[in-house]
Structure formats: structure tokens, C-alpha cells
Q: What sequence folds into this?
């Protein structure tokens, strides 16, 4: 029998945006690469009030595709509401670079 490793809990901070701006936090994941997965995002205003949330299963895809899809869906929702975007945050460097370099899959 092997003892379980202890989880390390790290503090993190959510920085507020300026009044009139919104912040999108998005993520996507799959059980395997590729396998079943899903995406989601949350949009908050300058006081941290939740304006929109969304999540969905996407079927079989890679984690990279799930993360790019979540980022795109959040940006599309913000644009459709005509919100000025201050930050769009994601935990995937590859997904963020794809958007920065106009190479979204």
C-alpha cells in the first residue's frame, strides 16, 4: 500500500479590472488526449460581479482544442454583449499563443 501524496495548496489572487471593463477566465479539459471533455468560462465586471457563466461538454477532443474553444467562446460572448475586454485569462500558454499569433485551430 502506498500513502497518498499531500496536495500543496497555493494562494492565488484575482485582480479587478477597471470600471467599464470585464475579465474572462476560461478553461477546457479532457479525460485523455484525445477523449471526452468540456469547456467553460466566467465573465466578471470591475467589482468581481459575475456577469455570465457557461460550460458544455464537447465530446471527444484534445485538451488543447478544449482550452482554445473555451477561450474563443468567452471572447465571443463578451463581443456579443459589447463589453470592453481588459483581460482574458487561461491556463494554457499554447492556447493563448495561438490567439496572439492568429493561429487558432
A:
Amino acid at each position: 500500500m502506498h500513502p497518498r501524496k499531500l496536495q500543496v495548496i497555493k494562494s492565488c489572487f484575482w485582480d479587478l479590472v477597471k470600471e467599464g471593463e470585464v475579465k474572462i477566465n476560461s478553461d477546457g479539459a479532457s479525460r485523455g488526449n484525445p477523449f471526452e471533455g468540456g469547456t467553460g468560462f466566467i465573465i466578471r465586471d470591475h467589482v468581481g460581479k459575475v456577469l455570465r457563466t457557461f460550460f458544455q461538454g464537447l465530446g471527444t477532443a484534445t485538451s488543447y482544442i478544449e482550452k482554445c474553444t473555451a477561450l474563443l467562446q468567452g471572447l465571443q460572448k463578451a463581443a456579443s454583449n459589447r463589453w470592453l475586454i481588459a483581460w482574458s485569462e487561461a491556463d494554457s500558454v499554447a492556447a493563448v499563443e495561438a490567439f496572439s499569433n492568429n493561429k487558432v485551430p
Helices lie at 63-80, 93-100. The chain has two helices and four strands.
